[in-house]
Write a structure and sequence with these properties.
Elements (H helix, E strand, L loop, with lengths): L4 H16 L3 H4 L1 E2 L8 H7 L3 H11 L29 E8 L4 H4 L4 E6 L12 H4 L5 E2 L2 H13 L5 E4 L5 H13 L6 E5 L5 H7 L5 E4 L6 H7 L6 H16 L3 E2 L5 E10 L8 H11 L5 E5 L20 H13 L7 H14 L2
Parallel strand pairs: 1-8, 3-5, 5-6, 6-7, 7-9, 9-10
Antiparallel strand pairs: 2-3, 2-4, 8-9
The chain binds iron/sulfur cluster.
């Protein structure tokens, strides 16, 4: 389709407008940050953080940190499904700008990528890290120093990517870092495959949860995520608990997230992710103002080439119907970039 200059400018304004017309105050309630303290500080001040660390470390002896419940003794060097050792393996730690605007701000999100994974999806976008475990094994004290360094260079939060299997190390490192001056929000960036019992140990420690909701159907979860047929039900329960703990996304005067829940949902080809069911579930089980990021960036990675139904990118129509469903079910707090992407797809379709 040929686009003339006037249409181009009109669509550019529409796209820009979607960002401008979604001022941060409309998708997250501002919170007075006077007196704001991160959750882990409040917990430590209340004398509870050390006890949580002890409780978490005990789980390593019969590992049930995630729904795989392998029961291996990681303290003795045994490895379960995730293949993670006792100490954290870290692939990288750096400011990251590929998250939501309220997470990255101007200085980036202080992102720590943990190696290994308890879900191991066939379309994993980080497969050298998650499946092959590339990275360096470090001590909890080193992890604490990474957090401090990320804070020192101005990052707005500590973004823990694939944290589930190293949760005890994270708690321990956070406490060490707290005594070295850590004061920025702690942010759990997870697949959503989390046990309720484990989330209860995290209650009050974390400031921001960002779970995925990958699929809504057990057969899809089993097929693409190493037999995890319980994923949809587990993730739904986990997200409701996360919402109970941190609630709706709150930001400071700069528009930077301080606390709250962000749900991510990656649209997949051939409706594999069950997007309509997902948005309906959010509308029926959480506040309609829950921050939801519907993402268009599915790409064929790792073993996805072996599955014809997911061996292509998504179409414009597949993304447009996803946003239409979100609106149909009344979700009011979609990520502005999702909305801007809709305009781009509409432009491509000539709509
Ligand atoms: S964290 Fe790893 S070892 Fe522990 S239960 Fe989950 S997959 Fe198994």
């Amino acid at each position: 389709m040929m686009i003339n200059r006037r249409d181009f400018i009109r669509n550019l304004l529409l796209m820009g407008g979607s960002l401008l017309l979604f001022p941060i105050s409309s998708y997250a309630k501002a919170e007075k940050e006077e007196g704001w303290r991160p959750g882990y500080q409040k917990l430590e001040d209340g004398g509870k953080l050390a006890q949580r660390i002890e409780q978490a470390y005990t789980i390593f002896e019969h590992c049930q940190l995630c729904p795989r419940k392998c029961g291996v003794n990681r303290r003795k060097g045994e490895k379960g499904f995730c293949r993670a050792p006792l100490k954290p393996v870290v692939f990288s730690a750096h400011p990251h700008f590929g998250e939501e605007r309220s997470i990255v701000g101007n200085n980036g999100s202080g992102t720590i990528f943990f190696s290994n994974c308890n879900l191991r999806c066939v379309f994993c976008q980080n497969w050298p890290i998650a499946h092959e475990g590339r990275g360096k094994e470090i001590q909890d004290e080193d992890l604490a120093d990474m957090m401090i360094q990320l804070q020192k260079i101005g990052c707005h939060n500590i973004n823990l990517v694939t944290p589930t299997h190293v949760m005890p190390n994270i708690l321990n490192a956070t406490r060490i870092a707290f005594y070295k001056g850590l004061r920025i929000p702690l942010f759990y960036n997870t697949s959503g495959y989390e046990r309720l019992e484990i989330l209860k140990i995290l209650d009050g420690v974390l400031d921001i949860y960002k779970p995925d909701m990958k699929y809504m159907d057990a057969d899809k979860a089993a097929k693409y995520s190493a037999g995890a047929s319980d994923y949809p039900e587990v993730a739904k329960r986990a997200i409701i608990e996360m919402n109970r703990q941190v609630g709706e996304l709150k930001i400071d005067h700069r528009g930077i997230a301080l606390r709250g829940l962000i749900i991510r949902h990656l649209v997949m080809p051939n409706r594999v992710a069950g997007t309509e069911k997902f948005v309906r579930w959010v509308a029926e089980n959480l506040p309609k103002s829950t921050y939801v990021n519907i993402m268009a960036q599915y790409r064929v990675e790792y073993k996805a080439f072996d599955y014809p139904e997911i061996s292509r990118g998504i179409t414009a129509q597949e993304f447009l119907e996803a946003i239409d469903w979100a609106e149909k079910y009344g979700l009011t707090n979609l990520d502005p970039q999702s909305v801007a992407t809709r305009h781009i797809y509409k432009l491509r379709k000539g709509g």
